[in-house]
TrEMBL record:
It comes from Mesorhizobium album. One of its GO terms (molecular function) is kinase activity. SUPFAM superfamilies: GckA/TtuD-like. This is Glycerate kinase. Signal peptide: none annotated.
Amino acid sequence: MTDPKTFLTAIFNAAVAAADPEKTIRNHLPAKPKGRTIVVGAGKGSAQMAAAFEKVWDGPIDGLVVTRYGYGARCERIEIIEAAHPVPDAAGLEASRRLLEKVSGLTPDDLVVALISGGGSALLPSPAPGLTLADEIAVNEALLASGAPIAAMNTIRKRVSTIKGGRLAAAAHPARVVSLVVSDIPGDNPALVASGPTVPDSGSRADALAAIAAYGMKLPASVMAHIQSSAADASRPDDPRFAGNEVHLVASAGVSLEAAAAEAKRQGIEAIILSDSIEGEAREVGGVHAAIAREVATRDRPFAKPVLILSGGETTVTLRAKGKGGRNSEFLLAFAIGIDGVNGIHALAADTDGIDGSEDNAGAFADGSTVSRMRTAGVDAKAMLAGNNAWTAFNAVDDLFVPGPTGTNVNDLRAILIR
C-alpha cells in the first residue's frame, strides 16, 4: 500500500470523480423543445454543471447560473455569476433578480433546464415582500450558528424567499422545467437541495416555526412576523404549474461512497459503508466514529482489519466561540481525541466541494499521533475543540487537506483506514 495520506486522497478523488457533472448530465438530457431552451442554476457545482451541459446539448441555449466566489468555470453561452457563500451578499441578490427575469414571459413550447447543487440557498437571496437582504443575512447567520440539520435550515429559508420553495419554477410557468440536481442532502430529497428553487415540497410554516423554537434561533422581528403569516406559504407539490416538470438526481453521496469503496477494493482494502446520510453534532459524530475505529483496531470487531470505513451525510456545528474551522475539521478533531495513542488508524474527513467552513481547506487528516503532535506544537486539542478552532489545530501540525474547489458537491466524505 502507498502511504495512508496518498491512499485516502485517492479515495476522496474517486468519490468526487463519481459526481463529475460531465459524466452524469449526459444521461439525463431532456427532450428538445419546439421553442427556446433557457438554462438557469445555482450552487457550488453549478458553473461546472453549466460547462458540462454546454458540451452535451446539441442546440441553441441561453442561460445564467450563480456559484460561489472562486468556483466559476468557462462557458460560452451560459453566463456565470459569482456571489457569497455561506452568508448572502448583494451579488447574490442581483443574481436572483436576473434568474427570475430570465424565466419570465416563456411559453408552453419553451424549456427551462435548472442546474441545482448544494450551496444554492445562500447564493440565491431574494427577500419576501417586507423583508430585506439584511434580514436574509441575519437568518443565514442564525441558521449557521444553530446546529440545526440542513433539512430544518432549508425549511426556514423557503419561508422568507421569493425564489426558493419551487418559486423559480412557478415563475417559469407555462414553460416545462427539468431540474438536474446534484444532492448534498442526507436522504437526497431534491426539494431540499439549495432550498428547492424549482421543486416544491410539503413543508409548512408550522415546520419552520417548530425548528426555530427547537434550536433557539433569534431571528429579526420582521422575519418572525412574516413566517407567521400566510405570505410565507410556498407552492405545494399538487400545484398544477408543476404538473409537467421533471426532476432528475444526477449525483449523490451514495453513488460517490460506492465509488470510493470500489477504489479501496481496487487497492486491496475491504471497504464498509456505514451510511450516506449521517447527521448530528460534528464532535459527537466524531466521537462515535472514533469508538468504532478503536474497536476494530484493538479487537477486530465489528469488522476485521485491514478495512476502510466510509460514511457520508452532513453534520452540524453549534458555534460556542469564534474559532476557525468547519464541520469536517471539527468532526476530525473530536475523532483524533478519541483515537489518541491508538496505532494503525488513519482518517480523512472532507467536504466534496473542496471547502470546509470559511477557510481554504476541504477538511483534514488525522491518526493516532495527531493529538500528541499538536501537544508538541503547543496546541491543546481539547481546548481547540471547545473553541470551534479545529482549523488552527490541524494547521499547527500541517494536516489540513486542501484540494481546492472540485466543481461538485455531494456533501461530506469520511474515510477511516484501519491497518
